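Give me structure tokens for this 283-residue protein.
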Amino acid sequence: MNWQREGYLSKRFGRFTGYTILIATTIMLALPVFFLLVASFKQDSEYMTYPIQILAKVPQWSNYKAVFTMTPFVKIATRTGLLGISVAVLTTISSSLAGYAFARYRVPGSSRLFSIVIALLIVPGIVILIPQFVLFARLKLTNTYWPWILGAIVGNPYYIFFFRQFFLNFPKELEEAAEVDGCGPFRIYWQIFMPNAKPVIATVMIFAFNGVWADYLMPLIYLSANKTLLGVAMATAFRNPNGNDLKTISMAANVIYVLPLIVVFFFAQKHILKGVVTTGLKG
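Here you go.
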């Protein structure tokens, strides 16, 4: 009986420890978001007071109104959203085609090519930033949205890997049956593989869209002020006549800025988790 009691206590202690770690991690991750939200309702004079004043004495809803009156927020958000959707669609198509080819066809050199794709996963984006800018500058494509579009057309190593791993799980018999019925490679890809790859498609599209919506560095480098995207606009638009940052209005802008991403993730989290998990089942 003692060993049963010890096992029970050990199980309860393990569960208690696990929940404690999860709760502590959740609180640490949620604190910046909570700080952002409560700060967006403060006056600037309340922002850095000591002792710290957590909640505003009088909620300043005017901060949110100022976001739309001080900047063409809707126009910039629409521009950013359209570019994000375009990049997400093009990246999904190009990466899925490449992933399909790597997963279902064995041709000379395909393993080495896929090894190059895997090698690109560990190359930080900042390393290729300057060479990439020089290339687009010489092609006279700066201050345009072509750097995003061309990057989406050639695919993304991470997303190619996702699709390749997912397509590896498809039974060969399904593909052979489609070939007997007269389906060519592209028709098999489009009518059989893609309809069954919804979790990965949702994951890739959301990640790709977020890459544009949340991007700050590329718009700052490639685009002028009248063509910039939402990340740069929200970081630089809210200043008083003396050039000082209006911190609480910036906080309100950031709340509006991240809200669409939170909503999208809330409704698509099951697809995202399923897509990420199933990409590693076979390889």
